[in-house]
Design brief:
This protein is mainly alpha-helical and about 110 residues long. Helix content is about 70%, strand content about 0%. The protein is built from five helices and no strands. It has helices spanning about 5-10, 15-40, 40-60, 65-75, 80-95. The protein is rod-shaped.
Length: about 110
Amino acid sequence: MHPAARLSLQMLNVSDAGQLAAIAASVGLANNLAALRALATDGIQRGHMAQHARSVALAAGAAGDLVQRVAQIIVEARQITLEAAERALAVILADSAVLIPDAEESIPLMGE
């Protein structure tokens, strides 16, 4: 028997295969219960939806800091779709567009 397995059995005070099977089943059930609890609450769901929203934002063409901004907008709107991400990206870009004046126009400087 492997030394680590022997030590584990001694720590668990297991003397036969039936006891070991019961312990393994208990650990498995506890793990399943923890997974169900995480799925029933917003822990895994929120994390998964945030990741999915970032993926959709990337697919819509967002890059850099815009990825998180687009993802946040579509999550808050509860519309995590490519179309919603494209609309959100268009709105962000339109809001932050810098107008470049024509070369013929003078640009007022401070104090003028």
